[in-house]
Automatic annotation (TrEMBL):
InterPro entries: GH, GH_1_N_CS, Glyco_hydro_1. The keyword Disulfide bond applies. This is Uncharacterized protein. It comes from Panicum hallii. One of its GO terms (biological process) is carbohydrate metabolic process. Keywords: Disulfide bond, Glycosidase, Hydrolase, Signal. GO terms for molecular function: beta-glucosidase activity. Residues 1-28 form the signal peptide. Gene3D superfamilies: Glycosidases. PROSITE patterns: GLYCOSYL_HYDROL_F1_2.
Length: 388
């Protein structure tokens, strides 16, 4: 069984590379076209690969709880075992090395390091696990890129105060970041505070398809939530948690550890469905409500003007002290781009679909124009990843 699993993991890795090579532009790309310092890597997240969900003092995360609720996951699968990376990380790193990669981005399970958040002890067995991963990567010449939060949070914090709906989470995230910087920062030179926080917020607090599964119609039918308000409260706390971690890193660690810190965003791009002023403006609003929503406060100190105009007082404001913290900004912005879509106006047009996450932007997204896809499907998410 172990041999079969190993072969399957190799097939997945090779298949991913083959998919990249099948893209129209890939045949013209050679590694020699890039600077010697260019990093080619792979990426994972803790919940997706680690397994060992209750081993070595780890507590339950929000995803552990969510996936055990019947109906939450289409096929009923969980991350209890996943790829068993917790026990097979050496084999996985050897696979990365065999592919010739020289970078690896992974996330740290908050619940494995701080099972009760700041309300409990640091789990030294969790520290040891990630130390072994980092040391093994460096031994193989692979640069570790570490993400602090990739969708997961200790369920303890959800139960105590509602996680991202409470400003208290900013203090907890700062404490978690401090523990990680102190334990791993002597070897980790690239830190990411959050991976795709816009997805986590929209799916968790607007659509209800991710934990904590909060939503209201027309976005979904959850047992609790407020799709019109909670996404903006959660986002505010995520942004300020990012700022808390960046300020801490700048003041306490960066000059000595010589690393950098940033954020990674889900970045769907939008093009106007028609060449009209209405659809062009809808495109700007769709981008603002998807990407600029998080990046504008970090880079410019406030939410996009498109959001301020449409949401008014529904959108939180930053205090002078919060703006000061945002002034620490970031060192880099990471982009996860899966697809490009058309945007159509819903401000002056009727017949727009309800329940899309662009609805508050008074825009609708579609992958087709007059029945023709914006681009060919590609990769493992071929039902919605359109190459354009």
């Amino acid at each position: 069984m172990a041999g079969k699993a190993s072969r399957m993991r190799q097939v997945v890795a090779v298949a991913s590379l083959l998919w990249l090579l099948l893209l129209p532009w890939a045949s013209a790309i050679r590694r020699s076209d890039f600077p010697a310092s260019f990093l080619f890597g792979t990426a994972t997240s803790s919940y997706q690969i680690e397994g060992a969900y209750l081993e070595d003092n780890k507590s339950l995360s929000n995803w552990d709880v969510f996936t055990h609720v019947p109906g939450s996951i289409k096929d009923g699968s969980t991350g209890n075992v996943a790829d068993d990376h917790y026990h097979r990380y050496e084999e996985d790193i050897e696979l990365m090395h065999s592919l010739g990669t020289n970078a690896y981005r992974f996330s740290i399970s908050w619940a494995r390091i701080l099972p009760k958040g700041r309300f409990g002890e640091v789990n030294q067995l969790g520290i040891e696990f990630y130390n072994k991963i980092i040391d093994s990567l460096l031994l193989k010449g692979i640069e570790p890129f570490v993400t602090l939060s990739h969708y997961d949070i200790p369920q303890e914090l959800e139960d105590r105060y509602g996680a991202w709906l409470s400003a208290e989470v900013q203090r907890d995230f700062g404490y978690f970041a401090d523990v990680c910087f102190a334990a791993f920062g002597d070897r980790v030179k690239y830190w990411t505070t959050f991976n795709e926080p816009n997805v986590a917020v929209l799916a968790g607090y607007m659509l209800g398809t991710y934990p904590p599964a909060r939503c209201t119609p027309p976005f979904g039918s959850c047992a609790r939530g407020d799709s019109d308000g909670e996404p903006y409260v959660a986002t505010h706390n995520v942004i300020l948690s990012h700022a808390t971690a960046v300020e801490l890193y700048r003041r306490k660690y960066q000059s000595k550890q010589k690393g950098s810190i940033g954020i990674v965003m889900y970045t769907t791009w939008y093009e106007p469905l028609t060449d009209t002023p209405e659809d062009r403006l809808a495109t700007e609003r769709a981008v603002a409500f998807t990407v600029s929503w998080f990046l504008d406060p970090i880079v410019y100190g406030d939410y996009p003007p498109e959001m301020r105009r449409l949401l008014g007082s529904q959108l939180p404001s930053f205090s002078p002290e919060e703006r000061r913290k945002l002034g620490y900004k970031l060192d880099f912005i990471g982009i996860n781009h899966y697809t490009t879509l058309y945007a159509m106006d819903c401000m002056f047009s009727s017949g727009c679909p309800l329940g899309q996450w662009t609805q508050h932007a008074l825009a609708a997204a579609t992958g087709e124009r007059n029945g023709v896809p914006i681009g060919p499907p590609g990769g493992p998410c071929s039902t919605w990843c359109l190459t354009a």
